[in-house]
Amino acid sequence: MRDEAFWAAATAAAVDADAADPLAGARALFHIPERLVYLDGNSLGPMPHASAREIDRAVRQEWAEGLISSWTDADWFALPTMYGDMLAPVIGADDGEVVVCDTTSTNIYKTLHAALALRPDRRVIVAEGGSFPTDLYVIEGVLASRPDVASRLEGRDGADLLDLIDEDVAVVLVNQVDYRSGRKRDLVEVTERAHAAGALVIWDLCHSAGVMEVGLNAAGADMAVGCTYKYLNGGPGAPSFVFAARRHLDAIRQPLSGWWGHAAPFRFDQSYAPDPGIRKFLCGTQGILSFRALKPALEMLGEYDLGDIRAKSVALTELFIRLVDETCSEYGVTLMSPRATEERGSQVALRHPEAYASVQALIARGVVGDFRMPDVMRFGFAPLYICHVDVVRAVRILEEVLADELWREPKYQVRAAVT
Ligand SMILES: *Cc1c(COP(=O)(O)O)cnc(C)c1O
User: Fold this and answer.
1) Of residues 270, 283, 125, the one with CA closest to residue 194
2) Nearest to residue 386, comparing CAs of 205, 208, 231?
3) SS3 of residue 408 by DSSP
């Protein structure tokens, strides 16, 4: 184990870096439990203080007092597109191209069908075999309703996603940042390669929205989906979002043709006519209380520069990797995430044979990361509330867990229902 002097020097350098941090003020906007180093914001972001106030207002005034009139007076009906417009600059989209609604899984289903319908003469969906499982399960669901369509998966049908894209491919569903390894794809390169073959791309931004400049329109992206409860801090079960480039909006049809996506929902027509704009991605009534928790986080992101956010994210992940290299590599830890900064998102994944129990031992000591099958410890670094000192503390405790084999304690070996 490294001595006290090593950690004192690392802490002093971290204190200096935090003093020069342009985002330092943001942490006070969140409720972070005392003495917790929360490196799981890529699973569930912490609560902005303002979210509790928003929910309180939505419940006590808008619901309790306003009742049905709040659909108009509190803009409930307009929230999906209002919040979509607030989110648009965060992902490099324009007004009217983003709608907040439903879950990421549902929105993948809608956009995949929409993309297949835009390329009627093509029969293949390309995706990553190592993708977050819901993306793969939803593809299976789409294939069940489209027996003429097949999937090609990276890792199963070829080693590299780009090699799977040819003239038969209608759509590529791809994560900007891999949920497990933290590998970051080049949004421009993949989009260009797909377009060169005449295919469309749906970007899954679950692990990138909020921690980097995404630049959808700059890359000429077609469609995108993502969730808002990870780095966008919208709270458990917060709604997802859908982006569709304006040039596609007219032609897009999505299969969940519910009344909220109708051109005139309150005409109560007997047949469906889609809204001409991004609202056509809506299906039914939205969870307004969950929406309200998201608003302060979207307002907050508008106050900060995404370049600063990415720069700090890079600094935090680099510091973490360097300290882990220096203190933990002799205990069987290996780096799963890419070493090259431009190929890495805002998380670092480490492999260790006792990853599950080690994560439990870390959590018991106030360092919250998470475990992913089969042997991955995953740590997310959200620049708005994680500071350099947190990183030093986390690695120091990780070194202790590994060096003293604290993971051996039987209680850390018991698997919880949610990991
Ligand atoms: C978190 C995540 C999801 C979540 O889907 P839900 O429908 O919101 O549960 C989907 N895809 C990816 C890549 C994710 O990281």
Assistant:
1) 125
2) 231
3) helix
Residue 42 makes CB contacts below 8 A (sequence gap 6+) with: 179, 207, 230, 231, 346, 347, 378, 380, 382
Q: What is the pLDDT of residues 173-228, one digit of tens each?
A: 999 999 999 999 999 999 999 999 999 999 999 999 999 999 999 999 999 999 99
Q: Is the pLDDT of residue 419 over 90?
A: no
Cα radius of gyration (the chain): 22
Cβ-based neighbours of 95, under 8 Å, separated by 6 or more: 85, 88
- Taking the CA of residue 175 as reference, the ligand 1 atom at the shortest distance is 13
Query: In the chain, what percentage of residues exceed pLDDT 90?
Result: 99
Q: What share of the chain is helix, strand, coil (3-state, %, to 5)?
A: 45, 15, 35
- SS3 at position 131: coil
Going by C-alpha positions, the residue among 45, 94, 335, 316 that lies closest to residue 217 is: 94
- 3-state secondary structure (DSSP) of residue 335: strand
Measured CA to CA, the distance from residue 246 to residue 217 in angstroms comes to: 10
Q: Which residues are catalytic?
A: 132, 204, 229-230, 378
Residue 108 and residue 173 in contact, taking contact as beta carbons nearer than 8 Å = yes
Nearest atom (ligand 1) to Cα of 179: 15
**pLDDT tens digits for range 397-415:** 999 999 999 999 999 998 8
Tally helices (H) and strands (E) across the chain.
12, 15
Residue to mutate, 179, 227, 233, 290, ligand 1, most ligand atoms under 8 Å from C-beta:
227
Name the residue at shortest CA distance from atom 3 of ligand 1: 104
Nearest atom, ligand 1, residue 135 CA: 11
Is the bond preceding residue 353 a cis peptide, omega within 30 degrees?
Answer: no
Cα 151 to Cα 125: distance, rounded to the nearest angstrom: 5
Model-level pTM?
0.97
pLDDT at 386: 98
Ligand 1 atom 1, closest CA: 206
